[in-house]
């Protein structure tokens, strides 16, 4: 009989797995073997684990499960971008998106069902917040995507990079994000280099410091404005951690980071933050922190109240930064037709903070 509740092994990093195995009277190397079965080979049940003794498999069956989120939607856009809608409980579903590009494949994962931070231009923020995802629910997105996408001829996995740029603010859920990120970089897990796992934050300063100490992976910071007055409006967490504090945290992060720059994300909002003067103001910020800029054309959603800057405006804005010697990339808009672009991810979240917007899981369509 199973003890209640059974431990979901999917969410245990190497340390967590070794602790569990110690409790079961098993050696640490057994824990690593099981880790490999689950994450490297995508095993979903214990019977497949052929090099694990029968008695241990029986022990594990009694106390543990391997339980990913349930796929309730799976769509592919014309450009190959694929989006899964994943049910994590009776009331919430989150989204994960795979973006294939030449020479690499990026999986964008969610860290929370909804988000508390309510950035003015973000559809996840607009739908409110219900709860943090568990480590199993976060790594489960990669586990499922890996199984769905398979392995390329030649043995390489389809997913070479992971970005925490789906629903939610990862720095407000580090208890789960850190074990998930550790599994991503663990050789017995997904074996990704720290540089290929990127956490994106709207600027939660204490979280940035904690991540630097416990699992420094690449960092992206959602800047979106060059001055506090505008950033206060667009990214409300700025009222708590204004730009000066944010930049100081970026500089501290760089001491531990696997890359020698921070990526500043900057959503291009027509007539709001896209003038030449605003680009020039960013140079003052760039002179303080080693950084690159990633311009994101705004992705519209119903009643957002914002418009995307024109391609010409984005080009000119980028030029101002480039002329000053900065590296600037402009994000291609991907996943059109399946609402899979940045900021369009909404999933289905039963919002405990705004009950009027509650959506029942029964309305989910596969
Ligand atoms: N909460 C984290 C990570 C998730 S959002 C953060 O805010 O950084 C990932 C990126 O998408 C962020 O840079 C975010 O500002 C941006 N984004 C949100 N809504 C958007 C929209 N409608 N169009 C384009 N980018 C958007
Ligand atoms: Fe949350 Fe990021 Fe959206 Fe802001 S942009 S509401 S922090 S998910």
General description of the model:
- It is a single chain.
- 32% of the residues lie in helices and 20% in strands.
- It is of the alpha/beta class.
- The chain has 2 domains: 59 residues, Orthogonal Bundle (DNA polymerase, domain 1); 269 residues, TIM Barrel, CATH 3.20.20.70.
- The strands form 3 sheets. Strands 3, 4, 5, 6, 9, 10, 11, 12, 13, 14 and 15 form an 11-stranded mixed beta sheet that branches. Strands 1-2 form a two-stranded parallel ribbon.
- Strand 9, helix 6 and strand 10 form a beta-alpha-beta unit.
- The two termini are 33 Å apart.
- The C terminus is likely disordered.
- Bound molecules: S-adenosyl-L-homocysteine and iron/sulfur cluster.
Summed over residues and divided by their number, the pLDDT gives a mean of 91
Largest sheet: 11 strands, mixed
Tally of discrete structural domains: 2
CATH topology of the largest domain: TIM Barrel
The name of the CATH architecture of the largest domain is Alpha-Beta Barrel
Overall CATH class of the largest domain: Alpha Beta
Total number of beta strands = 15
Number of helices: 11
The CA-CA distance between the termini, in Å, is 33 Å
Q: What is the 3D form? A: globular
The ligands bound in this entry are:
S-adenosyl-L-homocysteine, iron/sulfur cluster
Give the class from helix and strand content and strand pairing. Answer: alpha/beta
User: What level of helicity do the residues show?
Assistant: 25-40%
CATH homologous superfamily label of the largest domain = Aldolase class I
Please identify the oligomeric state: single chain
